[in-house]
Amino acid sequence: MLVEIRSYNHRFLDLSIRMPVELASLEDRVRRALQALFQRGRLDIHITLEESPGRDRIVEVDSELARCYHAGLLELAGRFGLEPQGLLPLLAELPGVIRVKETPPDAEAVWALVEAALLEAAKELAAMRKAEGEAIERDLIHRLDRVAHLTDEIGARAPLLTEEYRERLTRRVSELLRDSVVAEERLTTEIVLYAERSSITEELVRLESHLEQFRGLFGVDEAVGRKAEFILQEMVREINTVGSKTQHPDIGSKVVEVKTELEKIREQIQNVE
């Protein structure tokens, strides 16, 4: 019994099982066994039945077909003046004369072999994934630290954003004051909009909070892939909001760097259960 498992990145658990047709009744058992061990990834499982207990082989000879072949061969030998000797080996090789039939294997007896080989292959895959996971964790920690550093730099440049909006507001108020009558309500609205648009403090605070939540997933003995995806989505939302609030080149360049790191994190967590 030979079981091979190949693993690929996938957001959910996707099983592709290939096995001999005579073992098709065991496919559900194989699927359930793997579902109990893995939560994410595309797994290609190839099961080869080398030997099976309870399988009988029967050799059948089609005597009537052999007789017809023999008669034909004798006719050819007579027509071409050949000696009709050594026909038996030739007859045995002709299609349909000799057939080997095998009784279907006992599925219950074979399952013990399949299960043992399947669990061994799954164990090796899990060990490989663990080693890969440790490498991914190191990379994620590095990228999260990079995002945290960039977030601090954006926060340090926040006064530039305030000054940028102050200049915009000054120009806007100047335009409004050109009117002979400026409604107080209109000015108040502009000031409120300025206050809302000029602050990225809330976004940065939430982004830092999401970073801490993401770090809290390391070392947890459970599937964290989907939680990581959700937290990452929130981080992307916050940095997008920061980017939409400024046209300042210094802050904008840092926002682009954060987005680049978050995209790399997104690619990596596709490998995480």
Gross morphology is elongated
Terminal CA distance: 29 Å
| Secondary-structure element order, N to C | EEHEEHHEHHHHHH
The major beta sheet can be summarized as: 3 strands, mixed
Number of strands: 5
What low-confidence regions span 5 or more consecutive residues with pLDDT below 50?
Answer: none
Number of helices: 9
The share of residues in helices is: 55-70%
How many domain regions?
3
Percent of residues in beta strands: 5-15%
Mean pLDDT: 84
Based on helices, strands and strand pairing, what is the structural class?
A: mainly alpha
In the sheet with the most strands, the strands line up as 1-3-2
Describe the structure.
With 273 residues, the protein is mainly alpha-helical. It has 3 domains: 2-54 and 108-125, no CATH class; 57-102, no CATH class; 129-269. It has 9 helices and 5 strands; from the N terminus they run E-E-H-E-E-H-H-E-H-H-H-H-H-H. It has a 3-stranded mixed beta sheet, with helices on one face. A two-stranded antiparallel ribbon has the order 4-5. Helix 5 runs antiparallel to helix 6 (184-197). It starts with a strand and ends with a helix. The model has no long low-confidence stretch (mean pLDDT 84).
Note the main attributes of this structure:
single chain; mainly alpha; 3 domains; three-stranded mixed sheet; 5 strands; elongated
Topology diagram in text:
Blueprint (H helix, E strand, L loop, with lengths): L1 E7 L4 E6 L8 H9 L5 E8 L8 E5 L1 H17 L7 H7 L4 E5 L4 H50 L1 H20 L6 H14 L3 H15 L9 H20 L4 H21 L4
Parallel strand pairs: 2-3
Antiparallel strand pairs: 1-3, 4-5
